[in-house]
Amino acid sequence: MRAAHGVSGPADGREAAADGRVADAVAGHWVDRLAPRAARPYLRLARIDRPIGWWLLLLPCWWSAALAATRADHPWPDPWHLALFLVGAVAMRGAGSTYNDIADRDLDAQVERTRSRPLPSGQVRPRAAALFLIAQALVGLAVLLQFNGTAILVGLCSLVPVAIYPFMKRVMPMPQAVLGLAFAWGALMGWVAVFGTLGAPALALYAGSVAWVVGYDTIYAVQDIEDDEIAGIRSSARLFGDRLRLAVGLCYGISALCIALAVRGAGCGPLAYLGVAAFASHLAWQVWSLRERDGRGALTLFRANRGAGLILFAGLAADTVALGWLY
After folding, report:
1. Which of 9, 22, 51, 180 maximizes the CB count within 10 A of its CB?
2. What's the farthest any 2 CA atoms get from each other in the chain?
């Protein structure tokens, strides 16, 4: 995922570059208004001005924590785990984005929407970005060390897809599949943090989360189809072409099915299934609304996935609490 928010035309991109803002960031974000000027390029490098990325990284963690709580007969998802996942998602989203931008700085310079980013625009030097990457990774490591040994090992394994993803868009027709492996990793973490081992519900949730990521990042890639064609960057949006809606619908259908299987495997009650149904309905609305080469519309649909994920979490968490009251 080469960015996380916003879309703008060439004029907007030039204006953003002139004052250091990133062209695809949220307009009027506190990073641009309140942060010290020296810190702004680094906050932009970490995507702090585009929080949708860490939300999408966080939500599978919270889903998994809620499923694990139900299976373990806990009265609610562990609040300490939820808080750790939040801090870890922000830190590792920033670290992953910094790493991705270091690897992609030459490609980003060829795309109108991304050439104003801190590295291709010269606001941050690669060595400084590397040091910033290390600092963020250390925060993520400090969070990971709060969990049990198995969770630490599983968390460290997530670095494999993170490390290879930036290079996949050069060789794979659908690099979103690798992104999905990385961004969905939290679906394993919430479960293993409670049980110290992986189970079938966690694996089903992970499969569903991977399919969800591929679907929403395909929508996201619609913004860059023209520039990607010129720069030779591969994406699922280019691969699917005029079958875009069918392909995204298939991804979303697989996601809803796998998550429903995870809910069944965890022994959840009716509120969890209601959450899955509402989540699936939201995804169906996205597919219905999707239009080829409509970059602005694609961005709106992409960002709507935070709401979809929160709906699912609300259903799973409410089910855990309700079952605790009943039994």
Report:
1. 22
2. 61
Q: Give the pLDDT mean for 107-131.
A: 82
Q: Residue 118's pLDDT is what?
A: 84
Paired tokens of 89: 């998602």
Of the spans 123-127, 174-178, 252-256, which averages the highest pLDDT? Answer: 252-256
The token pair at 156 is 């460290």
What's the mean pLDDT in 59-85? 97
* DSSP conformation class of 117: S
Determine the Cα–Cα distance for residues 69 and 67; give it in Å rounded to an integer: 5
67-99 as b/e: b if 16+ CB within 10 A: bbbbbeebeebbeebbebbbbbbbbbbbbbbbb
**Residue type (1 letter), 141:** L
* Pick from 297, 113, 309: nearest CA to 219: 297
Cα separation, 292 vs 109, whole angstroms: 24
| The two structure tokens encoding residue 218 | 């395909």
Instruction: Count CB atoms within 10 A of the CB of residue 278.
Output: 15
CB of 315 within 8 A of CB of 59? no
Say whether pLDDT at 12 is over 90: no
Sign of the alpha-carbon dihedral angle for 204, 208, 213, 215? positive
Q: Return the amino acid letter for 205.
A: L
Q: List all residues 6 or more positions away from 121 whose beta carbon is below 8 Å from its beta carbon.
A: 17, 20, 115
Pair 93, 53: CB distance under 8 Å: yes
- Predicted pLDDT of residue 285: 97
